[in-house]
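Same chain as my last thread, 339 residues:
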Amino acid sequence: MSLHTPAGPAPTEHAFAASRARVLVLRALGLGDLLTVVPCLRALRRSMPDCDIVLAAPGRLAGVAVATGLVDRVLPTTAPGRGVPTELSWEGPPPELAVDLHGNGPPSHRLLQQLRPRRLLAYRHAQTPDVPGPEWREDEHERERWCRLLRWYGIEADPADLSIAAPPCASPAPGAVVVHPGADAGSRRWPPERFAAVVRALRRAGADVVVTAGAGEGVLARRVARDGGLPPGAVVGGSCDVPFQELCALVAGARCVLVGDTGLAHLATALGTPSVVLFGPVAPSLWGPPPHAKHRVLWCPRAGEDPLRPGDAHASAPDARLLRITVGQVVEAVLGRRP
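reply #2:
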């Protein structure tokens, strides 16, 4: 998923007290993946208040993780794509608890087992028979999946408990429609000419519009802004990621966020901002926002297609279901969103 994370140093992390036990959570993925496990992080914080919570995740997410107020430190990880890291640079005594929120193993199980935690919470897998846990389900929403894991081990977790606080800084574009055309994979990127057509229609309807871009997405965002009739200053980000506090302020103060199935959609959900989310290769029942009048999901599967994953989420070309979504549908959905 497209990432919008701090370009500079991460916010100050809490110093570890030598006497405090540590909980290690493995979630070495992207921004949206991190935000979907906020309910789990909150549950762990609540159930183990005297422990420091360490999140094993890409270093670029350190500022995001600490800004949630639920993570004391990020243990930086490196892995290609959505793979499991080959090692963790853990120092000191073994974790009191290790929690595998990365996948259903066995590589992630074994990675954590190398640290000899006192307890390991993970899904059951035939290749790691010494790890108990519930059965993995392919048809489960990502938020519910990880909360169910914790509940199986006796830690109460509510998948609806996903909110994060808006930052105290002011939005750079209060009341604007935030349009984010990017995504990590082409299969989840709606065509830029359609985004531009939506921008033109929104402007005719009197809406203020800004276009956001993560690092490397500047060309795409500038094209959408230019073809949509926006000035260059309407693009936020592109040459580098938008600092997380600024991005949060922008999203929190937006009239609506228009985005594909990527990280910014989850940020809008976490901040309670109205959104219109365009889905293609993966069903919204697996990754979509919670059912609420603020959020509108557009998805166009056909009879006979796989009801959960009808396309390749990591393919380079836009998915067929994404291409079935029309400009008119999107404009109507955006203009109908209200706080």
